[in-house]
């Protein structure tokens, strides 16, 4: 059984940077620069999507923890009110789960 808990803005940034940086050490210089540009863009996008950080209205950002206290995954959803739909912004499930 998983327990839902709030995620901090800093932890969300870590998730996004971590997934964007995965395998960066194995890339060529050109590919690494492209990946670094992606990370910069991801942080710009994050700041635009969450201008008030975790407290930005219409966003739900949660981590899910297993019975051993290990983080099993994370989920970020946001309601896009002008179009009235739910956007899945991040889903992360650790391999062992």
Topology summary:
Layout: E1 3-6, H1 9-21, H2 29-49, E2 59-65, E3 71-80, E4 85-93
Antiparallel strand pairs: 1-2, 2-3, 3-4
Helix pairs in contact: 1-2
Describe the protein.
This protein has 97 residues and is α+β, with helices and mostly antiparallel strands. Helices cover 35% and strands 31% of the residues. It is built from two helices and four strands, in the order βααβββ. The chain has helices at 9-21, 29-49, and strands at residues 3-6, 59-65, 71-80, 85-93. Strands 1-2-3-4 form a four-stranded antiparallel sheet, with no helix packed on it. A hairpin with a 5-residue loop joins strand 2 (59-65) and strand 3 (71-80). Helix 1 runs antiparallel to helix 2. The protein is flat and about 40 Å long. The chain starts with a strand and ends with a strand. The mean pLDDT is 86.
Q: What sequence of helices (H) and strands (E) makes up the elements?
A: EHHEEE
Percent of residues in beta strands = 25-35%
What is the terminal separation in angstroms?
11 Å
Largest sheet: 4 strands, antiparallel
Rg over CA atoms, rounded to whole Å, is: 15 Å
Number of strands: 4
Q: Would you tell me the structural class of the helices and strands?
A: alpha+beta
Mean pLDDT: 86
Which term fits the overall shape? flat
- Strand line-up of the largest beta sheet: 1-2-3-4
What's the helix count?
2
Spans where pLDDT lies below 50 across 5 or more residues: none
Helix content: 25-40%
């Amino acid at each position: 059984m998983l327990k839902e808990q709030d995620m901090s803005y800093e932890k969300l940034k870590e998730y996004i940077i971590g997934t964007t940086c995965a395998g960066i050490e194995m890339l060529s210089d050109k590919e690494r620069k492209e990946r670094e540009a992606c990370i910069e863009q991801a942080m710009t996008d994050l700041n635009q999507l969450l201008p008030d950080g975790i407290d930005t209205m219409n966003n739900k950002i949660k981590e899910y923890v297993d019975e051993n206290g290990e983080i099993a995954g994370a989920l970020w959803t946001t309601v896009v009110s002008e179009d009235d739909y739910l956007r899945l912004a991040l889903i992360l499930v650790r391999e062992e789960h």
